[in-house]
Each structure stands twice: as structure tokens, then as C-alpha cells.
């Protein structure tokens, strides 16, 4: 067996003929060999599915729960710089040693007769569940990787199931029928266990699935809501006993407020008695790497579909810029580049197209064609995000800003380097990275 984390990650990439293989039979069989489902993973498990908003909702549930004194474990994917980011215990990434031990447990179980083939993600999910199960946690929050019903995370029964938003993405696996996509995402629901619907525009199939299962529905705009006001924003929701709760003067977390409201409702349904002071503390401190993350003049956002791009554009438009707004755009081949460009166009004045390598990579020239077809001029073409960033460093004025977006791959490459700045901005003006 490999003896380093990198060795394990390279090894796992060779185990299965395809990278994504939807279904639960294989991963559930290995989980049962590992005895992962004999005891509850934690006192409460919250599972979050959706097209956008999963990561920010999970981060807010995590931070809110820890502010209330709970021990919390989380599992997310993909990572930006280090695999360890996928699993956190009380806000701290798990160690290489923990991951190595977890992968050893997965491999021993997988190779029992008959041997079972696992994808990279399936093996990683089982390792994550093993690591989380060793920690005696009050709460575990799991992010669905793709879909819901057939995602490896769904081998566990969620005590509270959340669906954030639903739009077309991963069409080659989930199709383009939005109602069918809704049914797939709603596959994380369980009979008699609460569901939280975090958008007012979800497909009808999501609520219908919950109702058919007898899973209580708590929907944004109905059971819970949020309202902005001069002192911040307010939230109204319900607890486990359907008793009303109101929180006022909450700080802006710098993340979508619908997701913040959803996180609060999910935590309330987990049995936590929400404290206004704790909620304010948590929301003021939460941050999510790669989501509207400011590094000086650079805003890095992993958004890779039109819905996510529209949110980023709206946020930029609410923050006036006296100079130019550059977009450094790099996307994968299977993403809706036209939809992303259309969503960003009103907020961007200058475009830089960069290529992404790999089997799913999209060339910069492909993006150029799509921009020019819309009458949008391209200022520069680069073969990689880093090359585009270096070129831009010589162009930036003090009043400019840069949006780097389109893919986790784009943002990860830029986060691994020192981004060029036209000016050193003082800390405290909303441009620093907050470290949790």
C-alpha cells in the first residue's frame, strides 16, 4: 500500500475505469464491510445537495454550530489546493496521517472477496466517513458531490436534508430535464425527517418527492424567511417543535443571504436552540475560500454555471468601481460558457481568456470565439490562468479590479501564486482574506 497521501491519491485514480460511475451498490457494500453504518456517524447528520450554494451553506452551518458549542465535522468536494480541505474537524483540516489510515481501511474492505472497484470520489467519501466517525462529533455536515440520489454521500440517512438551488449542470450525468434533476437532488430526503428547501424557485419535483415520502417540508418564503433592513438583516424560522424563532440585526456574511437563512433553518431543525449573539458572531466570521474571495484587487470565485455567475455579477455591480473590471475567465469543456459569459457581461469591461489543461480542459481560443460572437472584445489570450495573471499585472491601475472565475481549476491555480497588485490596499477595507 502507498505510504504517503499523494501516493494514495495517485493510486486511487487507477482503481476504476471511469471517473464518475453513478450508483450506490458498490460504495454501500464497502461501507458495510467497514461497519460505517452500524452506528450513527454523529448525534445529527445534515446533508446538503444543490447546484449552487452547497459550499457556502455548509460553511455557515458549520460556523453557526461551532459558535453554539457543538463539535462539528464537515465533508466537501472538490478541494482547491490540498486534499485535506475536504474533511474538517472543528474547522481544522484533517491530517495526512488520518487520511492515510482512512484509505487503508477502505482498501482493506474493498479487497475482501469479492474485490469491489471504487471511483476516486467513492473511495474518498468512504475515507471521509471513517475519519469523521473516529471523532465522536455532535454534528456532521455532508456536501453532495453530484446529483443526490446516486451520490456516494447518500449511503447515509440524513437527519436533516437540504436542497439549495437547482439549475442545469453536469448534463452528461443528470440530463437537461429540470424536473428530473430535481428528483435526483431530492434523493437525499428520508421519510419523516425534515427537509429544507433553500430557494423559492425549485422544480415542483423537489417538494413532490418530499411529500410522497412523508418528509416535513420547510421552504424559504414559507416556513422560514429573511428580510434586509438598515441594521443588517433579520431571519424568521421554526424550531423542531414548529415554534417560531426570530433573529434580528444579523451581520452580512458576504455570502448569499438565502443560503444563510437556509443554514439557520437547518441548524434549528437539528435541535440547536439558536442564540442571537452566537449567530451574529458566526455570521460575522464565516468565509469560504474561492467564493467571492478578495485578494487585494482580485476577486476569486469558482462559479462555473450561469446561476453562480449571475450572483457574482450582481455583487460586483453593487460595489462601484471607478476603474476597469477585468474578467480572467477559464472554464472546463463541459460547462455552459455562453451562459456564464452572458451572466457576467454587464459587470465586466475587459476580458482575458485563459486555457485549462486536462481531459476536460477548454482552450482559451474557444472562449474567445464565444465572446466575439457576442460583440465582446478580448484584451488578452493566455494558455494558463497563471500566464494570464502575469500579463495582467503589467496592465492594472490602482482603481481596477479583477474577477477570476469559471472553474475550481482556474481559482486553484491563482491561489497557489502571488497575485500581482497595482497597489497595496490597507487591511480593514473589506479586501483581506479572513482566516477561520
Automatic annotation (TrEMBL):
- Pfam families from the UniProt entry: Mur_ligase_C (PF02875), Mur_ligase_M (PF08245)
Q: Which residues form the Mur ligase C-terminal domain?
A: 290-408
Q: Which InterPro entries match?
A: Folylpolyglutamate_synth (IPR001645), Mur-like_cat_sf (IPR036565), Mur_ligase_C (IPR004101), Mur_ligase_C_dom_sf (IPR036615), Mur_ligase_cen (IPR013221)
Q: In which pathway does it act?
A: Cofactor biosynthesis; tetrahydrofolate biosynthesis; 7,8-dihydrofolate from 2-amino-4-hydroxy-6-hydroxymethyl-7,8-dihydropteridine diphosphate and 4-aminobenzoate: step 2/2; Cofactor biosynthesis; tetrahydrofolylpolyglutamate biosynthesis
Which Gene3D superfamilies does the annotation name?
Answer: Mur ligase, C-terminal domain, Mur-like, catalytic domain
Top-level class of the enzyme under EC nomenclature: ligase
Q: Which reaction does it catalyse?
A: 10-formyltetrahydrofolyl-(gamma-L-Glu)(n) + L-glutamate + ATP = 10-formyltetrahydrofolyl-(gamma-L-Glu)(n+1) + ADP + phosphate + H(+); (6R)-5,10-methylenetetrahydrofolyl-(gamma-L-Glu)(n) + L-glutamate + ATP = (6R)-5,10-methylenetetrahydrofolyl-(gamma-L-Glu)(n+1) + ADP + phosphate + H(+); 7,8-dihydropteroate + L-glutamate + ATP = 7,8-dihydrofolate + ADP + phosphate + H(+); (6S)-5,6,7,8-tetrahydrofolyl-(gamma-L-Glu)(n) + L-glutamate + ATP = (6S)-5,6,7,8-tetrahydrofolyl-(gamma-L-Glu)(n+1) + ADP + phosphate + H(+)
Where is the Mur ligase central domain positioned along the sequence?
A: 48-192
One annotated GO biological process: folic acid biosynthetic process
Cellular component GO terms held in the UniProt record: cytoplasm
EC number(s) on file: 6.3.2.12, 6.3.2.17
Q: Does the keyword Oxidoreductase apply?
A: no
Function description: Functions in two distinct reactions of the de novo folate biosynthetic pathway. Catalyzes the addition of a glutamate residue to dihydropteroate (7,8-dihydropteroate or H2Pte) to form dihydrofolate (7,8-dihydrofolate monoglutamate or H2Pte-Glu). Also catalyzes successive additions of L-glutamate to tetrahydrofolate or 10-formyltetrahydrofolate or 5,10-methylenetetrahydrofolate, leading to folylpolyglutamate derivatives.
- Report what the protein is called: Dihydrofolate synthase/folylpolyglutamate synthase
Amino acid at each position: 500500500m502507498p505510504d504517503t497521501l499523494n501516493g494514495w491519491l495517485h493510486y486511487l485514480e487507477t482503481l476504476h475505469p471511469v471517473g464518475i460511475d453513478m450508483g450506490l451498490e458498490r460504495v454501500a457494500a464497502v461501507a458495510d464491510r467497514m461497519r460505517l453504518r452500524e452506528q450513527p456517524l454523529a448525534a445529527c447528520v445534515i446533508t446538503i445537495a444543490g447546484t449552487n450554494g452547497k459550499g457556502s451553506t455548509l460553511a455557515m452551518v458549520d460556523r453557526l454550530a461551532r459558535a453554539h458549542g457543538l463539535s462539528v465535522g464537515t465533508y466537501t468536494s472538490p478541494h482547491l489546493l490540498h486534499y485535506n480541505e475536504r474533511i474538517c474537524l472543528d474547522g481544522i483540516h484533517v491530517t495526512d496521517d488520518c487520511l492515510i489510515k482512512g484509505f487503508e481501511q477502505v482498501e482493506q474492505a474493498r479487497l475482501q472477496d469479492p474485490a469491489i472497484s471504487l471511483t476516486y470520489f467513492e473511495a474518498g467519501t468512504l475515507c471521509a466517513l471513517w475519519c469523521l466517525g473516529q471523532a465522536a462529533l455532535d454534528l456532521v455536515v455532508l456536501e453532495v458531490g453530484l446529483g443526490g440520489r446516486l451520490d456516494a454521500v447518500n449511503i447515509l440517512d440524513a437527519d436533516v436534508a437540504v436542497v439549495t438551488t437547482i439549475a442545469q449542470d453536469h448534463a452528461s450525468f443528470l440530463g437537461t430535464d429540470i424536473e428530473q434533476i430535481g428528483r435526483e437532488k431530492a434523493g437525499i430526503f428520508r421519510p419523516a425527517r425534515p427537509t429544507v428547501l433553500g430557494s423559492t424557485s425549485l422544480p415542483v419535483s423537489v417538494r413532490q418527492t418530499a411529500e410522497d415520502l412523508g418528509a416535513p417540508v420547510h421552504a424559504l418564503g414559507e416556513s422560514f424567511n429573511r428580510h434586509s433592513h438598515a441594521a443588517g438583516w433579520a431571519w424568521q424560522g421554526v424550531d423542531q417543535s414548529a415554534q417560531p424563532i426570530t433573529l434580528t440585526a444579523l451581520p452580512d456574511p458576504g455570502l448569499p443571504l438565502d443560503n444563510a437563512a437556509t443554514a439557520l433553518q437547518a441548524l434549528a431543525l437539528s435541535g440547536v436552540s439558536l442564540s442571537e449573539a452566537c449567530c451574529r458572531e458566526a455570521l460575522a466570521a464565516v468565509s469560504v475560500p474561492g467564493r467571492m474571495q478578495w485578494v487585494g484587487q482580485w476577486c476569486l470565485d469558482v462559479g462555473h454555471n450561469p446561476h453562480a455567475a449571475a450572483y457574482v455579477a450582481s455583487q460586483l455591480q453593487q460595489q462601484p468601481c471607478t476603474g476597469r473590471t477585468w474578467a480572467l475567465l477559464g472554464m472546463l469543456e463541459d460547462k455552459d460558457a455562453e451562459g456564464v459569459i452572458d451572466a457576467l457581461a454587464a459587470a465586466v469591461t475587459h476580458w482575458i481568456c485563459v486555457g485549462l489543461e486536462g481531459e476536460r480542459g477548454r482552450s482559451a481560443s474557444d472562449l474567445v470565439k464565444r465572446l466575439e460572437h457576442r460583440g465582446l472584445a478580448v484584451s488578452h489570450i493566455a494558455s494558463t490562468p497563471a500566464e494570464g495573471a502575469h500579463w495582467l499585472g503589467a496592465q492594472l491601475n490602482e482603481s481596477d479590479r479583477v474577477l477570476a472565475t469559471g472553474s475550481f481549476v482556474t481559482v486553484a491555480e491563482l491561489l497557489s501564486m502571488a497575485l500581482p497588485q497595482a497597489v497595496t490596499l490597507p487591511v480593514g477595507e473589506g479586501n483581506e482574506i479572513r482566516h477561520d
